[in-house]
């Protein structure tokens, strides 16, 4: 994948090293640091910009195209998955009473199932004969997906860091991990 993109003769050794590191995880700051730049955050931003370093930016684009052509996954499919992660509604995992669907995962829409990293059901048998099922759902982090979509759409500049400037109104992932979703959803439904 990266070897053909690295053979661009107009790049310096440092730029080739940056390119090789950048293609590992698309983290420009880390790649610039590994390549030996003194100010990695600034260098990373400039090296990925076609206005500052068009040769490096073009090599990145070529490597990305080559990587996509090797995969049986289209850009549209990747963007669709990111959209599902970024714009998901946890209520899609719930029945009409606001309880997480546990009996049949096929009842949960595919777009929501793709956001799940883990799904466990714990069954507790009480002395009085009651059986209680508690669902533990771990969702993929939403904020990185939003940030990636914003970058793709050109809505997030290189210097902006969404994690410092945005507030999350409701931390669904944290609530799910703590098992507090059903009560909160029921309260919300009752208020509506």
Radius of gyration, in angstroms, nearest whole number: 22 Å
Tell the overall outline.
elongated
End-to-end distance, in Å? 53 Å
Please work out how many helical segments DSSP would assign.
Answer: 11
Looking across the biggest beta sheet, what order are the strands in? 1-2
Q: How many independent structural domains?
A: 2
Main beta sheet strand tally, sense and closure: 2 strands, antiparallel
Structural class: mainly alpha
Beta content comes to 5-15%
Percent of residues in helical segments? 40-55%
The count of β-strands is 2
List unreliable stretches of 5+ residues.
Answer: 1-6, 159-169
Q: Can you give the mean pLDDT?
A: 79
Structure keywords:
192 residues, mainly alpha, Arc Repressor Mutant, subunit A, 2 domains, two-stranded antiparallel ribbon, 11 helices, disordered N terminus
Account of the protein in words:
This protein has 192 residues and is mainly α. It folds into 2 domains: 2-72, Orthogonal Bundle (Arc Repressor Mutant, subunit A); 84-191, no CATH class. Helices cover 53% and strands 10% of the residues. It contains 11 helices and 2 strands. It has helices spanning 2-6, 13-25, 28-35, 40-47, 54-70, 75-86, 110-113, 142-153, 162-165, 172-178, 181-191, and strands spanning 116-125, 131-139. Strands 1-2 form a two-stranded antiparallel ribbon. α6 packs across α8 (142-153). It is elongated and about 75 Å long. The protein starts with a helix and ends with a helix. The model is unreliable at 1-6 and 159-169 (pLDDT under 50).
């Amino acid at each position: 994948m990266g070897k053909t993109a690295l053979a661009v003769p107009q790049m310096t050794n440092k730029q080739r090293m940056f390119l090789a590191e950048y293609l590992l995880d698309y983290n420009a700051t880390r790649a610039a640091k590994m390549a030996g730049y003194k100010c990695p955050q600034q260098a990373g931003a400039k090296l990925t910009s076609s206005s500052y370093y068009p040769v490096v930016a073009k090599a990145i684009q070529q490597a990305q195209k080559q990587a996509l052509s090797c995969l049986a996954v289209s850009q549209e499919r990747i963007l669709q998955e990111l959209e599902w992660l970024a714009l998901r509604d946890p209520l899609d995992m719930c029945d009409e009473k606001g309880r997480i669907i546990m009996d049949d995962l096929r009842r949960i829409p595919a777009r929501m199932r793709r956001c799940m990293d883990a799904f466990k059901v714990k069954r507790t048998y009480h002395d009085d004969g009651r059986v209680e099922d508690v669902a533990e759902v771990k969702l993929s982090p939403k904020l990185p997906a939003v940030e990636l979509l914003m970058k793709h759409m050109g809505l997030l500049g290189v210097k902006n860091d969404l994690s410092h400037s945005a507030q999350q109104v409701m931390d669904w992932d944290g609530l799910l991990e703590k098992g507090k979703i059903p009560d909160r959803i029921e309260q919300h439904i009752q208020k509506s």
